[in-house]
Amino acid sequence: MHEYYVTKQIVDFLLEEAKKHNARKVSEVHLVIGKLACLGIEQIKFYYEMLTEGTIMEGSRLHIEEEEVEVECENCGYKGEIKHKNMDLYHFLLPVLSCPRCGKEVKIVKGRECNIKSMKVVV
User: Fold this and answer.
1) What is the pLDDT of residue 34?
2) The pLDDT of residue 18 is above 80
3) CATH code of the domain containing 37
4) Which long-range contacts (C-beta less than 8 Å, at least 24 apart) are formed by 101-105?
């Protein structure tokens, strides 16, 4: 259900930005969602459609790019992508990721965020 609140914040923010720029219509929105953001892409799309109904965003195309997970290991210096299992359990428990080189715990550098990449409007 947290997808609803995240999507609502995104839609509210975009509507406010569109208003600041005197937009008559929003035609496209691009999001980047990290694979460890614990957000269901299909749920985001569903709520986006529901929340934009009756607004200048209604009918806009939503593009979602999934961002890979990137980590850094303080033990051996590894920095790069890491493979992980995409499990529904991650919506409740965060995974402990290990360095693919030495097996020690790592710091997540990229892949947890949910960002607005761009929005196309008609003024």
Assistant:
1) 94
2) yes
3) 3.30.2320.80
4) 101/73, 101/76, 102/73, 102/75, 102/76, 102/78, 104/73, 104/74, 104/75, 104/76
